[in-house]
Amino acid sequence: MPTEPIYYRRPPRSNSGEILVLLHGFTGSSADWDDVLESWAGDYQIIAVDLRGHGKSGTLTGQFRHRDAAEDVLSLLDGLGVKSCKAIGISAGGNVLLHMTTKRPGLISAMVIVSATPYFPDQARSVMRSYGSDIQEAQRDYWKRSHSGGEHQIQALIASARGFADDDDDLAFTPPRLSRIKARVLIVQGDSDPLYPVDLSVDLAKAIPNASLWIVPQSGHGPVFGGKRPEFLRICREFLGC
Length: 242
Prior knowledge:
The chain is α/β, with parallel strands linked by helices. The chain is built from nine helices and seven strands.
């Protein structure tokens, strides 16, 4: 279990409609969803989570495992009395959603997963082994603003990112296991992702019974920020609203 309670945000106006859970990527935080919390609060009951070790959810004391983070979110939703919801998860957040929906298939009715993976391929492990060695100052400043534990919390995240390179059982989703997922799923993948080749998203789409695949051209990992953000949010809204 995490050493501190899992932090989450619910906009004051977010008191009607279906419940929408938002999960950020690794080294991100619920602040990554500020635009959604502002513009979608009238349509959904939004729960934007800081995953364990991120944002205001404390500092990691060991290796981050997506399976454990999924248990955190499931416990949080149980505590809030959530019986059904929709969800969006980016990178690590998408991996957490894969754990949640294979463990408890009936909870999430529709979800969007961005740059998620059934397992860590060799090319990702190579990047992970040196993670944090070439972080730009602007990125580090963003981390400092996003994580309440400061440099100690950031270093713990960097260590965990490097630890992914030698982890073989946290993410090990087989087609039979993925076939348990009952949610409608939109899989979003950049065509030039340096971590996860497009083939892995194709494999996810083939294994998940009710899945659609959107390959974003000329895009890398987590291709849903910057200039592509408006299109991503429009497509998410249309997909989740079906």
